[in-house]
Amino acid sequence: MRVGRLTKPHGLKGGVKLELFTDNPELRFTPGAVFHLQVPEESPWFGRTITMRELRWFNESPVGFFQELPDRTAVEGIVRAILWIDEQAVAEGEEDNAWYDHQLVGLDVVREAEDGASHVKLGTVAEVQHFPAQDLLVVTTDGGTVLVPFVEAIVPSVDIEAGIVRVTPPAGLFEELADDAAEDPAITAGETDADTEIDGAEVGDADRNGPAA
Asked: Which domains does the chain carry?
């Protein structure tokens, strides 16, 4: 599970500012916590881990200190790395709303039916895309693909055991695809055929008249 990103050095003693991807940094960024690094393969940090020494707050911004980063020079070589924790750490933690991508892919996306007692399936999670501002669920539907912001206001709950993601989508997020799919293909085909016949008639008249003098 992604829990943060190293953004830029802070001071000269190995501090690094953090962008947090967790609602509970005090739980995830405890002394001794080990983080796997997501960095390019050519980075000297590829395949390595770093260990939390201390988490501090400066002007309401989180700053981390790690055992492997003793000074500013070391930090400058690792900025922009994404921090991950393993599944065991997630299971042992107490944080809600924390899942690996592979746990979400394949789940049915549903919303509450009008009767309030059942659910309507909208599609299936095909992928999870990660961005600095927010994550997106890529949902495949009968009408195409929908990008759903993975925020609590739109995705209030995930039930891994039941295999469903409950959503409360804003108006138009899924309806536009449904409207497109509801178009009558016969009418569209008829209009196309009519246009073709008219174009053909015009071409035929031109052929019969021969080239202009």
From this structure: 2-92 (2.40.30.60), 101-181 (2.30.30.240)
